[in-house]
Amino acid sequence: MMRKLLYSFLFFISSKSLSKKSCTPSLGLLCVGMFFVVSFAYADTYYSRTSGNANNRNNWGINTNGTGAAPANFANAGDVFIIRNGNAMTTNGSWTVAGALTINSGGSLAISNTTILGSFNINNGGTASIQNDFTVTTATNITGTISFGSANTTSRTITFTGSVTLNSGAVWNETTSGAAASFSFGNDFTNNATTFNAQNPTHSFTGVNRVLNGNTTTTISNVSITGSYANNINILTVSSALSGSGTLTNSSGKLINIGGTSTIANLVATAAGNSVNYNGSGNQNIKTTDYHNLTISGSGSKTAVGSLTVSNNFTLSSATFVANNATSFTHSFGNYIQNSGVFDFNAGTSGVSNVNISGNFTNTAGASSITTVGFVQNGIFNFNGSAVQTLNMPTDAAAIWVKYNVYAGTTLKLAS
Known about the structure:
The chain is mainly β.
């Protein structure tokens, strides 16, 4: 064991030093350096001895079958504790493990008291039930099952300071019969889990220059970004509220669905191929920012509260897009695509709503699918592209009291 190596080394240095009249500075520095190397390397691995209380040190042994010397305590950051196949462990009091805890296949851990771990691993076939406040200070890696259900009526706080990686095969389940837990993530979050179920309380992401990764479709009701995150999750759905003082940047080819409010300070959605879809079942305000692809779907009214720039496709597939909040905004779209829903200029009797189109215009939504307030041409489409643009609107009276401008140098082709 490293402990014996340390003792042997110190004895060797002491005996050698005493046999000399003096110890040179070089030897002294070498001694100190080697002492720190050996001290840092000192670590042991302990295995669960049997089912029972995890925070009882006598339920752990140095041998792979759980026998042998028990740890002196759980305070050594280098120590590793492994729950073996067939052992079901629980906590019966607050528990802090400075080192790593691993649950092997067939092993389980039920945490019913405040617990702090240095790092946490659940291998395929291992299970953990988190029923109280829980913190992991460094990395978490899960291929097995972790659940956060509890009959406790008091809300619990789950904090992952380090990175969280959910591998293929992992099950993440927040379903609970009691108060749902709130979650805080301070580093990268990777979701390749086979099953991912999140509950309503806020999931806060506090890291700086961090990444949301994964191929698993991820739905979280309430997301708060107070740090800065790049979204690399293929489909991220925030169904109730996207908030926070930080920045969320959607990466190329990724989709963010927003089903509720979007009050986040900074939403960056300009990367080529990325899309943002406002798809809630009720009324929503559209975050004023620049988009590459912007989709309006769901139901209710989706209202612009500022001028929008959409560099590629603006797509209206259902619901009502309210272009202006009873004032005068100017929107700039690449391609305009409307296959359902209503585009409502809503500029008021004195305002004028402008929509600049630099690409093609397609409306197959049918009659009265583009509206203004009535007998005032206060809804204006301006065609200002540098290449030939196409206007395709096959239904009579699809747009009523709408004005069209074709800028000098622009060619607008009417589809047959």
